[in-house]
Amino acid sequence: MAIPSILLKAVASQIPWKDVLSAAPDVLKSAKDMLASTKKQADVPVVDPTDDTRAQLAALAERTHQGELAQAEQAKLIAALAAQMEAMTVQVQANAVRARRLLCLAGASAALSLASLVLVATQS
Fold this sequence. Notes:
- The protein has 124 residues and is mainly alpha-helical.
- It has one domain.
- It has helices at residues 5-14, 17-43, 53-123.
- The longest helix is centred in the last third of the chain and has 71 residues, at 53-123.
- It is rod-shaped, with a radius of gyration of 29 Å.
């Protein structure tokens, strides 16, 4: 069943596009930074097992630090996406309530129309 375009327009008009679009550059920047840090992590040298213990510990500490930085960036990105999803979810729920009300109104209108038709038919 196709969704009427007027309903799609009504639903789309209720989405907080201003908030979504204002947060989009930050989300995009975070995603790019995360991608860059992932590429940078590939450049971190592998721990050489033949090195002395201090060099191995230093290399492992650097890898751990890079992983923690990447994890922090990922957490920021996920938080921004979660905030956007929350705002959209609130609007979708409000639209669902409106749709139910409209459906009840349409049902009542149909019942009233049918009752009027029956009344006119019995009067004739």
